[in-house]
């Protein structure tokens, strides 16, 4: 299964098949003397008991935490994994016991769609792709006009208008676990290819999201681990227009290539460049140079990057 992080500018309709089985199995924990502070994601109702309130939360696809007030019988359901709380004498805080941290933790038979996972006590919505060949669970996201789920496996779609916020979320997902990276590409003639890397990890913010990458396979060509060292991105730090970490002393790649990426002396791959219509090569557009060696900056219609947790 693949997992897709939802980024601004992209609309996906949530599909929650499989989450009910998770909730039936995980149940909940309670903490006396606390309640949830009202927020935009809170729904307030009344129930006969704290147990009934907890049951209501476990049966609601969006509920992650709840609180119950014994005197007024007030039950608050919240979609936040870690909502703001306060001490309250007659309050009871209810938390779902286990929230999946990856697409691979959802039950067999889970279909493609948007799901909530928990990373460092924070909830994020991701897209789980269950179909891609040789995949168990993938997180994924696409550069281009739309996100599609016609590839397969258990992947998380991760790259859609990459910025520091998104990179930080991905770093938290990857932290302490082994993942592979797969890029599904399509050009303007409708041809599709892929590039896969068996080892993929990103350091945290203190190390400026330094990239570790190895083990290429696929038919799109290797545009990230090129044998020409000035363009080999392994070990490179992440750059944006306000964080210049590239090796180009005479310029700033994030500005010239119009995106955020692990730029070195700029790059053979630019999945977060401008979305430009047509086939005319352009260094500021979305390109994958090794697709067509005779046409530099060969423009892509879409690039979908996905991560898969390894055993």
UniProtKB/TrEMBL annotation:
What this protein is called in its record is Fibrinogen C-terminal domain-containing protein
Q: Name one GO cellular component term.
A: extracellular space
Keywords carried by this UniProt record? Disulfide bond
Q: Which SUPFAM superfamilies match?
A: Fibrinogen C-terminal domain-like (SSF56496), Hairpin loop containing domain-like (SSF57414)
Keyword Flavoprotein included in the entry's annotation? no
Ranges for the Fibrinogen C-terminal domain?
94-311
Q: Which InterPro entries match?
A: Fibrinogen-like_C, Fibrinogen_a/b/g_C_1, Fibrinogen_a/b/g_C_dom, Fibrinogen_C-term_domain, Fibrinogen_CS, Pan_app
Q: Which organism is it from?
A: Mytilus edulis
């Amino acid at each position: 299964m693949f997992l897709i992080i939802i980024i601004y500018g992209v609309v996906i309709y949530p599909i929650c098949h499989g989450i009910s089985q998770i909730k039936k199995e995980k149940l909940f924990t309670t903490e006396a003397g606390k309640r949830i502070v009202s927020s935009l994601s809170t729904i307030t109702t009344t129930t006969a008991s704290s147990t009934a309130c907890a049951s209501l939360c476990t049966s609601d696809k969006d509920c992650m935490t709840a609180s119950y007030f014994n005197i007024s019988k007030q039950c608050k359901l919240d979609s936040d994994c870690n909502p703001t709380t306060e001490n309250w004498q007659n309050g009871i805080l209810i938390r779902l016991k286990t929230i999946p941290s990856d697409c691979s933790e959802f039950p067999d038979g889970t279909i493609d769609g948007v799901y909530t996972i928990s990373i460092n006590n924070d909830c994020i919505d991701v897209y789980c792709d269950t179909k891609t060949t040789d995949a168990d669970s993938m997180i994924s996201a696409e550069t281009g006009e739309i996100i599609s789920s016609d590839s397969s496996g258990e992947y998380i779609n991760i790259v859609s208008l990459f910025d520091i916020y998104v990179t930080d979320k991905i770093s938290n997902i990857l932290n302490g676990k082994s993942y592979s990276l797969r890029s599904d590409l399509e050009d303007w003639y409708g041809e599709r290819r892929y590039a896969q890397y068996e080892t993929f990890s990103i350091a945290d913010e203190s190390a400026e999201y330094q990239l570790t990458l190895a083990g290429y396979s696929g038919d799109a060509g290797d545009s990230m681990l090129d044998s020409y060292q000035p363009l080999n991105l392994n070990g490179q730090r992440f750059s944006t227009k306000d964080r210049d970490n590239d090796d180009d002393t005479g310029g700033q790649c994030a500005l010239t290539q119009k995106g955020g990426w692990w730029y070195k002396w700029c790059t053979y791959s630019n999945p977060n460049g401008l979305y430009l219509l047509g086939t005319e090569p352009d260094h500021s557009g979305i390109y994958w140079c090794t697709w067509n060696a005779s046409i530099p900056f060969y423009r892509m219609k879409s690039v979908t990057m996905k991560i898969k947790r390894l055993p």
